[in-house]
Specification:
heterotrimer; A mainly alpha (285); B mainly alpha (337); C alpha/beta (330); B: 337 residues; mainly alpha; MetI-like fold; globular; C: 330 residues; eight-stranded mixed β-sheet; four-stranded antiparallel β-sheet; 25% strand
Chain lengths: 285, 337, 330
């Protein structure tokens, strides 16, 4: 594992950049635990100050220090992304493995359902759902909802991986020697499925943080919790651009872009590393 | 032909019907999970906002809401009544613009969304795929490598952030494009006037650029990875060995096959692209379905949100179905099974 | 006159990724000649360098493959060329398909899956002879295909509508549109069932007999060589083990590896099981010292472990690389 990391660091520029970007994000998360300001309070600093040495990202029209406020936003957004990813991983792994191993009509039904979720325009449905649950919406509930909707594509991916594993000879050998299906799954296949699960986790975190931004901007999340989305919501509410407080919009947008780019680069770099085809192309035979 | 119908057509029709069935059923169930009585909540909200409504209107609104939420009768009856209304195309009146039907308002907003969405999807699909294939076939080309970095970056970032960045850069810091709307406030749409069409295009530039950029990145990256696999296929190696020109190989041997999974992918992401268009409209204040949705959210116009959800599901499902029906025209392997 | 003269050819794959660099010595010191109007067979197990050899002599060298040493010279009578020096454009203009054509390994999948067969003919003919009269082209292609015993219908079919044997015949028809001086056929019968194999081999033989060109036939199947080839070269681990006219090699094989290959052919009436070689072909990234066959050779001597045997002529047109055989013996 350490060796893999070292190899990736040394030979993959994308991986290096991802580590740098995500390192910055992680630093912000850590700093949030030592913030001089409470993100729930407003008018603790002079308002509408442009970025300066004292206030790195400037201050908002609500009298908050934007940098320190964003440290909480990044932390909460990541928390949401990870909880969503865990929930949707459980569903996608269960559905993917069941469909792949059982095959037959179970497979067909599960895949029809997951295809449906892939194709459905989720945003309007999520808007409807969060609209109705607006009063009881908090970060955890939003994570659960996103988790329930965000599993479909990855379930299909895991299923196809299982299908290809099932055809390999060691599975056949295990079946003929009388090993039960469950143990085949745990012992033989999980090591092959796990890297894909990991890669899709990163992708799913991206998706859920993006969805949170979208729903928050529409005013459909818990607006008292600092997140990357609510940062933009409040900036819009106060007409930040019209009032000339451009940093209020720009800072969360840039931080979001850095977080996304970092996670995405990590995802493609790892994905390429675990994809046997690209490895073959790079290393040869 | 029988094989084609059995193996291709019938599964697609089933998929289409499942999609609509699941989507509509989900929208039917969701309101029933809400903790409060939605009808009374809505009515009291309307009254509290001080809308001057005579008692008769309140009563008809309550009836409309009860009907809309499908709350009369037992759940099974409610469910069938819900479908019945859908088939009649009756999604009830907008609560905010009572009694204008939701369908009518969506009908007015939809052309704005489609006039942006369709060209943007077509343009990004064509150019993303073209440059993705080129970049994989000419890996040493600098300009293409720069394009790939742009594609990778833009593709990873959500629509909303791309839209915000474009807005801040090109109408705030470098004010070359208008801030919001589809045309200046106070102008009446006049499609025979060149001036109007020009301002319309000017207003559409940044919204369209958002959709095109994000789409371009996605198609570029997808096509590149597809192409890099196809390049080592036997028939491509064979064509190279036979001395065919690079252009001919790229177009007829590589792109022609690589584009097919991209068509399928297009059908898969239509829902996401549509969602992206909605959020983009919110940023640019563009008067399409997205703006309709955010106004409905601010005004608690439940029936409008319900209507938008249902229309979106049916619209996207139908678009996907049409693409599935067209697909065999491009792929002979499906056509002659 | 020789058509092709290969001298001391070394072609390696060199790759580097995640800090690991490796060199696969796929062709390591190979010399042989091809003459007009013959069927020359190349035999050997998979990954012995056969396919790499073909890539080099057909001018399809692409990274990570590189020719490090040696020469590959063609003499087409009116036109001479060094395959290791030729430019890509010249290769395309003067050599590919007009003088050297290729029936690829896995010919089943060489046809573009989303275009009709006739389109592939059109692409190839148009590339080398620029089609001006479409009707004339169609007429000529139909005649060509019919002469090879294929129905005209195949031209209007998509590849997936044709059987494997039919696709293989189409690939051969494609390789012969211009009457090339050399046809390289890489495993043309592998993955076909026996009856179809026979038909395909007949087709190759007929084409060669009528147009008197040279066929370089590569296959691991010794039975095919016995039936079709005039001369046979046996490759082992990137080197030539033995080369001789088909009759000599089947009647009096000298190299232990050749003997093994021939003895493992089934003989009608024989009931005993065949002895198999111990071990597997060597890894060409790290080949054995001395004679590369020594770890598996039943007659291995001390000399074999350290000194690589030279390829020596034992008699007219018969060469072998083995310490057991001395020059001029027999």
């Amino acid at each position: 594992m350490l060796k893999v990391l070292r190899d990736l660091l040394r030979y993959d520029g994308r991986f290096r950049l991802a580590i740098i970007l995500l390192g910055g994000v992680a630093a912000m998360v850590l700093l949030s635990y030592d913030s001089p300001y409470d993100p729930g309070k407003s008018f603790v600093v002079p308002w509408d100050l442009p970025p300066s040495r004292e206030h790195l990202f400037g201050t908002t029209s609500r009298g908050q220090d934007l940098f320190w406020w964003l440290t909480f936003a990044v932390r909460n957004s990541l928390y949401l992304g990870i909880v969503t990813a865990i929930i949707s991983r459980v569903i996608s792994v269960l559905v993917g493995l069941t469909a792949g191993y059982r095959g037959g009509w179970i497979d067909r039904v599960l895949m029809a359902i997951s295809d449906t979720f892939v194709v459905l325009p989720l945003l309007p449905i999520l808007i409807l759902l969060s609209f109705l649950l607006r009063d009881s919406m908090n970060l955890l509930n939003l994570a659960i909802i996103l988790g329930l909707f965000g599993w479909s594509f990855d379930a299909r991916l895991i299923r196809s991986q299982v299908l290809s594993l099932r055809e390999r000879s060691f599975t056949r050998t295990a079946i003929y020697s009388g090993t039960s299906g469950f143990w085949i799954t745990i012992n033989e296949h999980l090591p092959f499925v796990l890297p894909i699960v990991f890669a899709t986790t990163l992708n799913n975190i991206l998706w859920s943080i993006g969805m949170e931004v979208t729903l928050s901007v529409l005013g459909l999340s818990d607006l008292t919790t600092p997140t990357l989305g609510t940062a933009l919501f409040w900036a819009n509410q106060h007409g930040a651009l019209v009032a000339g407080v451009w940093w209020w919009i720009t800072a969360p947008a840039v931080v979001t872009a850095i977080l996304f780019l970092g996670l995405y680069l990590l995802f493609t770099s790892i994905n390429e590393f675990i994809d046997p085809r690209t490895r073959l192309r790079l290393i040869g035979g | 032909m029988r094989k084609f119908i059995l193996r291709y057509l019938i599964p697609r029709i089933i998929q289409y019907l499942t999609l609509i069935f699941v989507g509509i059923t989900v929208t039917y169930i969701i309101p029933r999970l809400a903790p409060t009585d939605p009808v009374e909540a809505q009515v009291s909200m309307m009254i509290a906002r001080g809308n001057t409504l005579d008692p008769q209107s309140v009563e008809s609104m309550r009836a409309a809401l009860t009907d809309l939420y499908g709350l009369s009768g037992n759940p099974v009856e409610q469910y069938f009544a819900f479908w019945g209304r859908l088939f009649r195309g009756d999604l009830g009146p907008s609560l905010n613009n009572f009694p204008t039907p939701v369908s009518k308002m969506i009908g007015q907003a939809l052309p704005y969304t489609l006039r942006l969405l369709i060209p943007a999807v077509v343009i990004s699909f064509i150019f993303g795929n073209l440059f993705g294939a080129l970049s994989s076939y000419y890996p040493a080309n600098r300009a293409l490598n720069v394009l790939e970095v742009v594609g990778q970056v833009v593709r990873s970032i959500p629509y909303y952030i791309v839209a915000i960045v474009l807005l801040v850069v090109f109408s705030y810091f470098i004010p070359i494009f208008p801030f919001s709307g589809a045309y200046p406030i106070g102008t009446r749409p006049d499609w025979s006037s060149i001036d109007f069409i020009l301002t319309y295009l000017e207003h559409a530039a940044l919204p369209a650029a958002t959709l095109i950029l994000v789409g371009f990145g996605g198609w570029f990256v997808g096509m590149k990875s597809l192409t890099s696999n196809i390049i080592s296929e036997d028939y491509v190696v064979y064509a190279e060995t036979a001395g065919l020109s690079k252009n001919r190989i790229l177009v007829q041997y590589i792109m022609r096959t690589a584009i097919l999974p991209q068509f399928t992918a297009l059908a898969m992401v239509l829902g996401t692209v549509f969602s992206g268009a909605l959020i983009m409209e919110v940023v640019f204040g563009y008067p399409g379905i997205g703006s309709l949705a955010i106004r409905a959210i601010y005004n608690n116009d439940y029936s409008m949100i319900m209507g938008i959800t249902i229309y979106s599901i049916i619209g996207v499902a139908t678009a996907v179905f049409i693409m599935d029906l067209l697909y065999p025209l491009f792929d002979p392997r499906v056509r002659y099974q | 006159m020789t058509l092709l003269s290969v001298q001391n050819l070394h072609a390696y794959y060199r790759t580097e990724a995640y800090g690991i660099s490796r060199t696969v010595r796929a062709v390591d010191g190979v010399s042989f000649d091809l003459f007009p109007n013959e069927i020359y067979g190349v035999a050997g197990e998979s990954s012995c360098g056969k396919t790499t050899l073909i890539k080099v002599i057909s001018g399809s060298i692409k990274h990570p493959l590189k020719a490090f040493e040696g020469s590959v010279n063609y003499n087409f009578g009116d036109y001479k060329v060094d395959m290791l020096q030729i430019s890509q454009s010249e290769l395309r203009r003067n050599v590919r398909w007009k003088r050297i054509s290729y029936v690829m390994q896995g010919s089943m999948s060489v046809l573009n899956p989303v275009r009709k067969v006739i389109k592939t003919f059109e692409d190839i003919v148009d590339t080398h002879e620029h089609i001006t009269d479409k009707n004339e082209f169609l007429q000529r292609t139909r005649t060509h295909v019919n002469r090879l015993g294929l129905p005209t219908d195949v031209l209007n079919a998509y590849p997936h509508q044709l059987s494997g044997g039919m696709r293989q015949r189409v690939a051969i028809a494609l390789a012969t549109v211009f009457q090339p001086a050399l046809i390289i056929a890489d495993e043309p019968t592998t993955a076909l069932d026996v009856v179809v194999q026979r038909g395909v081999l007949h087709m190759i033989k007929d084409i060669q007999a009528t147009s008197n060109n040279t066929v370089l036939l590569v296959t691991h199947d010794m039975a095919v060589h016995a039936n079709v080839a005039d001369r046979v070269m046996i490759m082992y681990a990137g080197r030539i083990a033995e080369e001789a006219p088909t009759e000599s090699i089947f009647n009096a094989p000298l190299h232990p590896y050749t003997q093994h290959l021939i003895n493992s052919l089934p003989v009608i009436g024989e009931k005993s099981t065949k002895a198999s070689l111990k071990g597997s072909p060597p890894n060409l990234a790290d080949p054995p010292s001395g004679c590369r066959f020594h770890p598996r050779c039943p007659y291995v001597m001390d000399e074999c472990r350290t000194v690589a045997p030279d390829l020596i002529s034992v008699k007219e047109r018969h060469r072998v690389a083995c310490h057991l055989v001395k020059e001029g013996s027999q």
